[in-house]
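Q: I have 393 residues here and want to know how they pack in 3D. Can you give me a structure?
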Amino acid sequence: MGHRWVTLGSCLLGVVLGGGGSAAGGEIFGTVVGRDGSRHTGTIRWGNDEAFWDETLDGYKDAAIETPVQNTVDVFGVTLLRWTETRRQDLGLAIPFGRIARLEPDGARACRVTLRGGTEIRVRSSGSDVGSGGDGISIDEGGSARTELPWEEIRSIEFAANPAPGRDAERLYGTVYAAGRELTGFVRWDRDESMRDDVLDGDERKIAFRDIAEIARDGARAATVRTVAGETVRLTGTNDVDHDNRGIEVRLPDGRRVTTEWETFERVVFAEAPPSPRYAEFGEARTLSGTVRGVDGTALAGEIAWDLDERWDFETLEGEDADGLEHAVPLALVREIRRVTSEASDVELRSGPTLRLRGTNDVDDNNRGIRVTPAGGSAVELPWSAVARVTFR
């Protein structure tokens, strides 16, 4: 995962998920067991945010990487001192809820996650998703029965397919126009609001997203909103509608996320949301494997750890394209990565398109290298400068 974001489901959807969609089962569902032995089965809202299988549990991996950092003391352009120190770098992890079979809190700041397929990993807190510092979870058990449990009162969560239709149609969905592109998918406004009952804030007026047909950027400090009823309103004064907006994210049908900053955002036109991916459509988590070809023509095949870090197919390759759009690409979608300059790589998708990405250690010379473990052999670490391309199996 690139340093800039920490942070992760058409025909290509089958590569990541494995099937078609249905209105039933789009929401996170399971049985939550409390520390008092109580059991609560229903749809789950994680904190005040994640509600669907293709959304992610965000945290840090249990391990960290020691990274050498060069330091200098310069006076009038002359380097007087130069030294290297080692710094511990936490490694971000984002797991789609659809890839999780079971979760157990492990103290106030971590949890044990059992992936579908049986592998257990420990995830440490990086924010509000994991640990007692978050908002806990709520379980809708049907009718008026809704239970809210803080982190410290949860013993375990067993995830399962949702048997009933959920709130799929309540997700924000539409076409975002940015940098001359059209991006259609589920929308997360300001990297936060993702539901029709969320609210777009202005300093003098607030409008529920369900009442909005279109939002257009109106310079650096305002947005023009066209409502479903046909009214046109200009909003100012908050980060929802000015250059302090943290970005408009679009989750494409194949599982990629593309985010536009306010400066490149043009407008969004909302539409009725299609079904969200079901739990049954997410396959088991798989480790990455393929062939690494060096600049000297040698080839080495085996399991792959990209940037000495990403080793699961649900982890994302991140970077920015020439138009300033930020991409987060699940590695399951990637056929090949080719290093083209010190600042950029070409990322060829299994669906055919090739993205030229830059701006993060995933795709530039800040990459820590590729670890390859041949079948029955010992791991080999290749520096990024020695790698020409990697083809994933």
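Q: Anything worth noting?
A: Residues 57 and 95 are 5 Å apart (CA to CA). The first strand starts at residue 29 and ends at 34.
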